[in-house]
Design a protein that fits this description.
AsaB-like, transferase, oxidoreductase, 5-stranded mixed beta sheet, globular, alpha+beta
Length: 274
């Protein structure tokens, strides 16, 4: 499908400033900026995945798994705190079954999204549920991976310091088949990390995270799962502790052919120790 992706523009400001953005209001602070980003909107072709078995986490940064889970859409949207632990247990068991290279897997975050009818024409900072992310990114850098664990498992630094681990995401729609603003994945083999990837400070109300954002490169190849069902799990690596493995850069894209319900989705982040 033909669509557009909102890349991070190459800007001379990054010669003197690190990229940053925030999801909290700053208008009341004199001289404050919510971000120093500029958009580089590009028309791209996003290809449908025709054979799920072709995609390998270690090579491409993402893969696809067919698996049943018990999380219901209404529970995720209205009772996330009560039901997320059971869902985490299901996800950990699924990952252990498919990825024997991991000795221990611990889920630590769960994000539920429901697209607002006004998205993206009117993107509000505060909605009841998080909105799709249009900027192609990886949720954390190698440094950000350690920052994630510091926050998720306070006081346990001695357990993971010096260990080899990955930060993984497991993403699926809450209702399907879904074609509305699907998740698009960039094939890692088409990314040139040195010029394409920019480390970014993600400023939150209570912390600063570090993630990674993509600049445009005409070599990038993007893919999505057409008619994705609740049993179609996209697994991708955000980062690893050594900063050496394939990453799953991703974003949501407008599908001009979509019809049906607005997208609802759930994603889990976990640490997977080798």
């Amino acid at each position: 499908m033909e669509t557009s992706i909102s890349y991070l523009a190459q800007d001379p400001i990054f010669d003197i400033e690190k990229p940053f953005d925030t999801d909290v209001p700053v208008e009341h602070i004199p001289g404050a900026r919510a971000s120093n980003h500029k958009n580089d909107e590009r028309t791209v072709t996003v290809y449908p995945i025709t054979d799920a078995s072709e995609w390998d986490l270690e090579k491409h940064g993402f893969c696809l798994i067919k698996a049943k889970t018990g999380l219901k859409a209404e529970d995720a949207l209205t009772r996330k705190r009560e039901v997320q632990k059971d869902y985490w247990n299901e996800i950990e068991a699924i990952l252990h079954e498919h990825f024997p290279q991991y000795s221990r897997i611990e889920c630590y975050d769960c994000t539920v999204r429901k697209r607002d009818p006004d998205f993206p024409a009117n993107i509000r900072i505060y909605t009841k549920v998080e909105q799709p992310a249009r900027r192609p990114h990886s949720d954390c850098s190698a440094k950000g991976a350690h920052m994630n664990l510091d926050r998720a498992f306070p006081g346990q630094q001695s357990f993971w310091e010096g260990k080899d681990f990955d930060i993984l995401n497991i993403w699926r729609p809450l209702r399907g088949p879904n074609n509305d603003w699907p998740l698009a994945m960039c094939d890692w083999t088409t990314i040139n990390p040195s010029p394409d990837v920019r480390i970014n400070d993600a400023i939150r109300r209570d912390r600063v995270d570090e993630n990674a954002i993509l600049h445009y490169n005409e070599d990038h190849k993007w893919y999505f799962m057409k008619d994705q069902t609740v049993e179609d799990l996209i697994v991708f690596r955000n980062a690893d502790s050594l900063g050496k493995r394939a990453q799953g850069f991703h974003c949501s894209v407008l599908n001009p052919e979509a019809s049906g319900e607005l997208r609802e989705s759930v994603e889990v982040r976990c640490v997977a120790f080798r």
